[in-house]
Design goal:
single chain; alpha+beta; Nuclear Transport Factor 2, Chain: A; 2 domains; six-stranded antiparallel β-sheet; 5 helices; elongated
């Protein structure tokens, strides 16, 4: 009897060990599946000024990030260092990952119209934010959130154009950029945003003489 009891106890112990091992294998497979299905990259938008700290939902994009994106892409698109006829066309291709298809088609058409009218050949162009009229302007908001996934960014911009080393144009205008959420291809667009051209027509604005002289210096 004693021998049989010992055998039964060992069998019960072996059975319990097998049960534990099976549970551990199941748990390991579940954890491996969770690890494999988890996203490899997660973009978190954090405001530039962290002096007071920041707590945000991971999917929330702060207005500072939207404004910075809009200004950066707009400046890059309008940067013609040598010849607008080649630089503008190259910029449309180079920045294609940050543009919606409709905006890319609009810019391509704009390029063709400007080229045919002789506005691009040998033109050098650069745009920059009017001092005091950026995201920190307290008088009026420069970022308007339309829905969870799209914004209007009002850029108050100075545009300078040069021909043969001489400045031939300086314009002050507000450009209402339409920015949308776009997490389609992080490889070509890590911002998770895209420029959808304009929410309305650009408007000329008036600036003080001091600001006009400061800009571009």
């Amino acid at each position: 009897m004693t021998y049989r009891k010992r055998v039964d106890a060992q069998r019960a112990h072996i059975y319990s060990l097998r049960l534990v091992i099976g549970l551990l294998i199941t748990l390991g497979l579940y954890m491996a599946y969770g690890w494999q299905s988890a996203p490899r990259d997660l973009t978190i938008h954090v405001p530039p000024d962290l002096r007071s700290g920041s707590t945000r939902l991971w999917w929330d994009i702060p207005p500072e990030s939207v404004y910075t994106f809009g200004l950066y892409i707009f400046q890059q698109m309008n940067r013609w260092p040598t010849d607008g006829e080649t630089d503008y066309a190259d910029n449309i291709v180079r920045l294609g990952g940050y543009l919606t298809p409709s905006c890319k088609a609009y810019l391509q058409k704009d390029f063709e119209l400007r080229r045919n009218s002789g506005e691009l050949r040998k033109r050098e162009r650069g745009v920059f934010e009017i001092p005091g009229r950026g995201i920190d302007d307290k008088k009026e908001p420069h970022v308007q959130q339309n829905t969870l996934n799209d914004w209007t960014v009002n850029l108050d911009i100075t545009a300078d154009e040069h021909y043969g080393g001489e400045r031939v144009k300086r314009a002050f205008a507000r450009y209402p950029l339409h920015i949308i959420r776009s997490d389609i291809d992080p490889e070509t667009n890590p911002f998770g945003l895209a420029w959808d051209c304009y929410s309305g027509n650009p408007q000329r604005i008036e600036v003080s003489e001091d600001t006009a002289q400061t800009g571009g210096q």
